[in-house]
Design goal:
- This is Response regulator.
- Keywords: Phosphoprotein, Two-component regulatory system.
- The chain is an alpha/beta fold and about 120 residues long.
- It contains five helices and five strands; from the N terminus they run E-H-E-H-E-H-E-H-E-H.
- Strand 3, helix 3 and strand 4 form a beta-alpha-beta unit.
Length: about 120
């Protein structure tokens, strides 16, 4: 079973999204901060990380940079309520696999997750 790490400072959203992924057949780890996510990455086998962009203390971009040092081949999906061409370009430069809009379209997110995991 593939494990997805979901990172978001909104606990309610994290719970709903985590349950959605569990029902879709994934193992799920959840983190409410970048530091918590990095700790999980050091101690677990994670096949893909999904992170929010705007979080206190450490943005999704900063988290992705640090996460890719720990797990260089791990796909990362960044999701945000405010997507721009500049954000998409920055994400690509950092090594983020995809940028997706929030709120999440469940079908599109599942397709993206399956495609990213398959490519690893």
């Amino acid at each position: 079973m593939k494990c997805v790490l979901v990172v978001d400072d909104d606990r309610d959203y994290l719970s709903l999204f985590g349950n959605f992924l569990l029902q879709a057949g994934f193992s799920v780890q959840c983190a409410t901060s970048g530091d918590e996510a990095l700790s999980i990455l050091k101690d677990s086998t994670i096949h893909l990380m999904i992170t929010d962009l705007n979080m206190p203390k450490m943005s999704g971009i900063e988290l992705a940079k640090k996460a890719l040092i720990i797990m260089p081949r791990m796909p990362i999906i960044l999701h945000s309520g405010s997507i721009s061409p500049e954000l998409t370009l920055l994400a690509e430069v950092v090594g983020i696999s995809r940028v997706m809009a929030k709120p999440v379209n469940p079908g599109a997110m599942l397709e993206a997750i399956r495609n990213e995991i398959r490519e690893v």
